[in-house]
Amino acid sequence: MTRRRLPEGFLLGCATAAHQVEGGIDNDWTRWVADHPEAINGGGDAVIAIDHYRRYAEDLEQLGSMHHNAHRFSVEWARVEPVPGRFDHDALAHYVDVVRSCRRAGMEPVVTLQHFTLPVWLAEAGGFAAPEAPVRFARYAAACVEALGDMVSWWITVNEPMVVAVLGHLEGLWPPGERSLPRTLAALRGLLRMHAAAAEAITTVSRSHGRQAQISIAHHERRLVPRNAASRVDRAIAKVPDFLFNRWFLRCCVTGRVLRPVGNGQAVPGLAGSLTYLGLNHYTSEAVSLDLGAPGMLFARHEAVPGLPLSGAGWAIDAVALRTALTDLTREFGLPILITENGVSDDHDEMRPTFLRDHLNAVVDAIDAGIDVRGYLYWTAWDNFEWAEGYTQRFGLFSVDRDTQERIAKPSAALFAEICRTHEVFDALIAG
Ligand code: FCB
Prior knowledge:
Elements (H helix, E strand, L loop, with lengths): L2 E3 L5 E5 L2 H4 L6 H8 L16 H14 L4 E5 L2 H4 L8 H16 L3 E7 L5 H5 L8 H16 L5 E6 L1 H10 L10 H28 L5 E13 L5 H24 L1 E2 L7 E2 L10 E13 L9 E5 L14 H15 L3 E6 L9 H17 L4 E7 L18 E3 L6 E3 L1 H12 L1 E3 L1 H4 L1
Helix pairs in contact: 3-5, 5-7, 7-9, 8-9, 11-12
The structure holds beta-D-fucopyranose (FCB).
Beta-D-fucopyranose binds next to loops.
């Protein structure tokens, strides 16, 4: 039996996002789903979600009792600032108690400020591209750091900026349902400015209290490989989306400029060096080949890499790609990495045990090779509202009875608890 140890102090836990679990939120997604119920696979909405806004204390206690020592969640901007410039102190007090509950349960909080959703007033003013979005986001970030900063050091400004821009503005599958390249580029420029402004605000408020904050985006990395490695065309066609999706935003954050082709290299105040670590969301890899019928996708067809097992979402399960991402990102950016999401949609909890073992082994391999990985947050604790997939994709360690809201641990919840308790990953856990 091979036993492999994760380092002392390594963060292990789950990641969640407010809109997917809390219920009772009025934001751009709530309005979108009410107006476009057909956009949600299987119907459903997040009006109640899994009622986590009311059940957070017992939910977090349960994760702590399963030896998690970290927990990622997002603050819902629409709750905290329901009207521009007016902060809701009860909402902030709620999140203060969420952080306290994490600490009480022995979990380091990792806090996301924007996880896909926007207050309605900002969405109506133009969303990410609204001229006032960066200033507004910075004020909201400052309010969060004032309220939570004495108990939080890990911050995430925006979750998956490329994903939210592409799905909402290019593919029209998410709010605001646009299919426009110029609007996508405008959203991306706005997201960069929002991130920069929030990073500055986090740093300033933290320093004024004599603290140092860890700041990143949650970067979604999806390894893109040519469908046919021997084909020069496939190799060439994979390069452009790989650069745009996997590298463009991060390179902007490092250089401090809106790089081509989205911008002209113009400088953004506060952007250079705005990442003190790299938050990495990793799920899958894709094979790319030439598709002359897909100009909107830059003539690239994306499909699961042939030969790899598929998750319930139809995504290829590829632990080697996680290992490659850790290596490549470290080589280029040299930042400590926190895995802020990694998980598998799996209706019957059949693939998840092996998934966890293989992906955590990839992490141990990377650490053994000298890569600075600080933690691993599994997506996600509880089956939840998976955006346009509604309740059809089950990533959770717990299932949730949607009538009674009872949380039911799947076998892999116990497996993950054992990994968290021992900080060891070994094959026998799965056999047993
Ligand atoms: C990520 C999102 C997260 C969740 C998982 C499955 O892209 O950040 O909210 O939906 O995918």
